Amino acid sequence: MPISDELEALRQSSRVKTQSTRLSTASSTTILSPQQQEELRKEKLTKEKQSKLEAERALRLGATYNLKDSNNLLLHDILGHGLYGRLMNEHRKKEALTKALKEEERGALSKVMINAVTKKEEEEEDKNIKKKEEGQQQQQQQKEAEEEQQKREEQQGETEEATAEAEEEEKPIEEVREKIENLSINDAEVEGTSGTAVAIDDDVEIEESSETTTTEQQISPTKASAATAEDNLDCIEQTKLFYNKHANEFIAQMNKNADALTPTTLRDSFLNHLQEEMHLVTKTLRAKLGETNNDTAAFTIIDLGCGHGRDTRHFASLGHHVLAVDFSYAMLHHAKTIAPRAHYLNMDMRMLKNLLVDQSVDGIWSHASLSHLPKEDLDSLLKGLYVSIKVGGVLYFSVKIGTHDQIGQAGEVVEPDTRYTPIDNEKDTCKLYSYYTSSEVVELLSKTGWEVIKMGEFDQRDKSDYPTHSLLYVFATRRKD
């Protein structure tokens, strides 16, 4: 039988025996009299003494006899089945029980120790896992911080690049502004070979100081009267010379015949066409961006051949951003005095294409100015203007209508303007006039990419004696990117 089963049997036997003894004791206590109990006690003591004596005797006999001797087998058997045997069996059982209990205790202790070790290992493992998680979290935070730092650096770099680009783009504008601020009769002409691109800033306006304006007003355009026409001047230079010398007379004529000569209806039509064309282009884009249509938006307009600034002042007074260009510095001087918030360029309009950024202009206005340009140069000018205007932008210009004899090169005439008297020198009043037919204009626009919106005739000869010819006007637009 296994030792564990034997231990369990002993425990059960011990409990049964103890319970039996208690019951018998209780029974005897309740049944036996004191005398009987005393006699039983004495008898028990006598038996115990007798048992001890027998045990001692048996031990002495066991020491004197050789148990291996076959003759003593019977005695050994008797001793084994006697009191000594019982005592030895109980002693061995007790030792076995004690040993088993100790082993059991050691097993329980080992389990406790194992549990303690296991618990400690689990705690260490939890600490390691927690430490690892904290390390990973720190790494993640550090990574996020690095990414954030990199993002900020990239944004800062982009901002710096944008600022640098803005500053780079602003330089040519500042140069133009500086020239505008310093514009006077003695200004030199703009170099036509310059390749610098100028973007017209829709959001920037030049604020003239009262001191600058006052100073310029004190400079009289008549200082240019000292210049004289030379035989070798070309037609453009002769035209410029006329407007520089006779600026005051020309302006007086314009003011005198303002009701007849001011193209009021054409200016309104120009802004209406510009608003409609730009609206068609930007409607879809604004819808995508969630913006509302701003029908009163300010436009960027070039007044090409602005003269004394009549139309420049009108567009600027409506809140539009105007760049006024003219070859005559005397005319520009007057334009600045009546429209100080516009931008100005004193240059040959044929060179304007070298200064403008592609698709930077909303509208181009040129009333009766292209008549002073050679026909062979109009094709190149229209191409340059087409590149600079935005998709949906509008071009307006008007030229003198020619007769059948004034077609092609025959339509270019350099002749004195007899409306200005007295004439000290006939050559001082010579101007270039280019005449066109409607078919010529349509062909030129088609070749240069423009799409005609509307064409018509502006004839004010019945309202004033100043006009000598009727004007052919055109509204065109750019619809392709």
Round the Cα radius of gyration to an integer and report it. Answer: 61 Å
Number of helical stretches of at least 4 residues? 13
Overall geometry comes to rod-shaped
Q: What structural class should be given to the helix and strand makeup?
A: alpha/beta
Q: Helix content range of the residues, please? A: 55-70%
Chart the SSEs and their pairings:
Layout: H1 3-31, H2 34-64, H3 73-81, H4 83-181, H5 210-217, H6 235-245, H7 247-256, H8 258-261, H9 264-289, E1 300-304, H10 310-317, E2 321-326, H11 329-338, E3 343-346, E4 361-366, H12 375-388, E5 389-401, E6 412-416, E7 430-436, H13 438-447, E8 451-458, E9 471-477
Parallel strand pairs: 1-2, 1-4, 2-3, 4-5, 5-7
Antiparallel strand pairs: 5-9, 6-7, 8-9
Q: What do these coordinates show?
A:
- This protein has 481 residues and is of the alpha/beta class.
- Helices cover 56% and strands 13% of the residues.
- It contains 13 helices and nine strands.
- It has helices at 3-31, 34-64, 73-81, 83-181, 210-217, 235-245, 247-256, 258-261, 264-289, 310-317, 329-338, 375-388, 438-447; strands at residues 300-304, 321-326, 343-346, 361-366, 389-401, 412-416, 430-436, 451-458, 471-477.
- Strands 1, 2, 3, 4, 5, 6, 7, 8 and 9 form a nine-stranded mixed beta sheet that branches.
- Mean pLDDT is 75; it is low at 63-71, 73-81 and 179-232.
